[in-house]
Amino acid sequence: MSLDIKPMSPLKMKYINMLRERAKDLLSAYNYPDYIVSDVNLLRFVRGYMYNMDEAYESFSKMLKWRRDNNIDEYFKKVEEVGFDVHKIPYADVFEPIFHTNYHHKKDLEGHIIDIRLLGCIDVKALLSHPEKEWLDYNIYVLEWRIYTLNKYSEETGVLQRLCCIQDLKGVGMHMVSPSLISYLKDMTNITSHNYPETMHRSFVVNVPAIFSSLWSLAKPVMHPRTVKKVVICKGNYHKHLYEEIPIQSLPTYLGGICQCEEGCLSCIKNDDVFKIPVSSKLTVPLHLKKGEKVEWDWKLESGTIDITMGFKGTEGMKPVYKGDRVSSHKDVFQAEEDGMLEFNFDNSFSWVTGKTVIGMMKISC
């Protein structure tokens, strides 16, 4: 079924009402907040369990009990008190420098909010120096902020809002594997999957290390099969996978994009205008443009030369824009006469010895 919720289709409302009817005794016994018992949130449980109403009801009822038993509404009140600023929620000052995340970093091509996590940058020693209760409390604050925000955006846009996640494993190694850390992450995953279903559209796992298969075998059993199907494990060159669903304007430069957030897309990594093309490889960088948008670029290679071709794909197919063989730099401006995609193709397949680093600037304006 589609993600459209305005208007909510009769079929969606049928399932939502079925779930609400089955849970009416639980719902009437406690004053749950609106964003938890809204049609949008009930739809997440219905979709998350593939319209299996027995499973959806079991999960929904357990979530309501978990909220009541653990006084989760008090967590939300504290999120509300700081004006829904996720950087000011309790424990944010403690865990943000340890667990590097940008929870809402622009949007993918379908409008899903991008969530970036640098798992290889976790300061394991610092994280484990804090009680697990504090870590779980912090994550519940984040989850309450997130589900409220996603449901609010859903109501405003008329589309069920979810997350496009990027899990960067660069730096993950055996030094990070400990029973305590696994316990911390597993408990966090359990709380998320059981109480906040259907909040993820896709999860890209990039810079996958050799140890990943062991870590994945630990994480997979606690995840719902529907969630597992949304995980895209990108071995080797991951840019192609990201570019299929995320515009480069929404990607930080260290993930192959051109985003330049004023304070950095993530505070722990500097935004550098760099594209790396490995030995004997090609890289296609697609740039989605609207009519009238102008893109300006000024690139040069750190060393050596590379082949570059450019084309614009509009209503009449791909039209050539530029072709350069064995070039070391390129500077130009292009303005789109219609909606379409400008492709930059970097070809280093002729080089069997040296990878290439393209350094420079790309700026888009109307």
UniProtKB/TrEMBL annotation:
Residues 266-364 form the GOLD domain. CDD domains: SEC14. It comes from the Eukaryota. SUPFAM superfamilies: CRAL/TRIO domain, CRAL/TRIO N-terminal domain, Supernatant protein factor (SPF), C-terminal domain. Residues 91-263 form the CRAL-TRIO domain. This is Sec14 cytosolic factor family Sec14. It comes from Blastocystis sp. subtype 1 (strain ATCC 50177 / NandII).
